[in-house]
Amino acid sequence: MEIYSLKNAWALILGASSGFGLATAQELAARGMNVLGVHFDRRSAMEKINQETAAMKELGVEVEYFNFNAADEEERRLAIETMKERLGGNSLRTVLHSLAFGSLKAYFESEEDRELTSAQMEMTLNVMAHSLVYWVQDLRREKIIGNGTRIFALTSAGGHKVWPYYGAVSAAKSALESHIRQIAFELAAEGIRANALCAGVTDTPALRKIPLYEELIKCSTCKNPSRRLTTPQDVARAVAVLSLPEADWITGNVINVDGGEDIIG
Predict the structure, then answer these.
(1) What is the DSSP string of 178-207?
(2) In this structure, are residues 103 and 123 in contact, taking their beta carbons and an 8 Å threshold?
(3) CA-to-CA distance for 24 and 82, rounded, in angstroms?
């Protein structure tokens, strides 16, 4: 049986400057994949990001990052045009949606101006869920995804459990999982596979923005069968393995990457 590798294939990572996205970029680059990354950061963060991309290039792979709001339609289409030229006729093997920007507010408060607004709800769902559909539509139109492409989206247990202040993000995660199922169904005949990866609680910059995140860390560490949190590298390795051609028949799923955390009540 022939053993496949990821060497010289291409990956696109949305949310590539920290957390799961950065870890996945590093993991795939270490396995010989070329990386296109989209992130949205201030100038003050660019020195560190440039250091990370330089380190990946030292592995002998091509790396190009684009700094813009991934939910902006015009910016997305302009970036995809540039990416298509960079790919030089190649298709993307891996696409990872790891955008973590949403409103963390309660639905109901004693004062109305502290409650989640419709604009905040719509922004959260657009960035963290609906943008996946729009990216896949444009990538498909430009014929840079096709037979063999793997699409992944990062979800969490918050998509089916309740956490304080997590309502809008929870709704986005639920929608994201639904989008993955629909993408898997509609694009199966084209050889495109799509799965959501449900990471366990992971100490990332996004987690630390959640109110009471210390309690999440404490509870998850205690209940996880391995008595530790999930790491970004755990998820990155899962993306790499599921990007291999041998994983071709795995699609339309929500796959837990959490060491068994979610099976504990």
Answers:
(1) HHHHHHHHHHGGGT-EEEEEEE--B--TTG
(2) yes
(3) 22
pLDDT > 80? residue 94:
yes
pLDDT class of 4 with cuts at 50, 70, 90: low
Nearest residue to 103 (alpha-carbon basis) of 160, 17, 41, 170: 170
Backbone conformation region of residue 88, classed left if phi is above 0, alpha if psi is from -120 to 50, else beta: left
Domain ranges of the chain: 10-257
Tokens of 225: 């069968």
Over residues 164-221, the pLDDT tens digits come to 999 999 999 999 999 999 999 999 999 999 999 999 999 999 999 999 999 999 999 9
**Beta strands 34-39 and 254-257, pairing class:** unpaired
Cα 101 to chain centroid distance, Å, stands at: 12
Q: Please tell me the pTM assigned to this model.
A: 0.96
Predicted pLDDT of residue 65: 98
Cβ proximity of 115 and 109 under 8 Å: yes
The predicted pLDDT at position 5 comes to 79
Closest CA to 206 of 100, 99, 132, 96: 100
How far is residue 106's CA from residue 109's CA, in Å, rounded to a whole number? 7
Cβ atoms < 10 Å from Cβ of 213: 17
Please give the pLDDT value at position 229: 97
**For residue 175, what are its two tokens?**
């929608």
Query: Which superfamily does CATH assign the domain made up of 10-257 to?
Result: NAD(P)-binding Rossmann-like Domain (3.40.50.720)
Q: Which neighbouring-strand residues pair with 154?
A: 197
Which residues, 6+ apart, have CB-to-CB distance to 105 below 8 Å? 114, 115, 116, 120, 165, 167, 168
